[in-house]
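CATEGORY: protein folding

GOAL: derive structure tokens
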Amino acid sequence: MKIAILYICTGKYHIFFKDFYESCEQYFMPDADKTYFVFSDNKELAKYDKVRFTYKECEGFPNDSLFRFRTFLTVENELKGYDYIFFFNSNMQFMALVDEAILPTSNVGFLCCLDADYDKVYPYPCFYPYERNKNSLAYVPRGLNSYRYYHGGVNGGRAKEYIEMCRTLNENIAQDYQNGIVALYHDESHINKYFSDHPCLSLHAEYGTAEGSPNQGSAKIIIVDKTKYSTYFNKGRSTSVWGKIRKMLWMVKHIISWYL
């Protein structure tokens, strides 16, 4: 079984690669033939075994993330030679064995990880941070049979279906951008729109548990807390009282928009 692993680490994000790579080699499909497609502006990463390195300039936040599907399609022809393709955020780290049990079935071509913050805490879709701009191609309407909110840090699937997804999302994001629209949570918003229309194997939060969470002990993959390394990774987040109030007010506004 041949697996392509997609990994973007421009700017300071290269500091996470060593731990990701070593843990992935140990725990993720250890018997599979894995190739790491690494997109970075740090050429030192080309020295690792199994790495196919592509130099990529840092575009900053949110563009490095927003246009990730465009980045992946630069190696589309190579990716066609693999059975499965997986993407992992740069600050992911494997903690326990992840084997073939997570692979898509014959009827489902994709897998994506549920966001623990929204799947377990909020039982109503109005609380989910879907894109509410009806002019965006990431817009998720009311009236679906079911709702699931996926974080953008772990996803994958059979190569053919995954490449088709990358093409569609790249086109949708480019069209939005041309129209002056950037979805609320960038590529994650577009992923959630895509999986509202396409069947997907839902991975539970053990495949993407935040570091420091009470559930970390049972996690197979953790999301490393970037901010403990540098304020570079803070991206404008505020833990002050005023910051929490603003977040609460934003949530109220977002909930109201669901019913408009």
The chain has a mean pLDDT of 90.
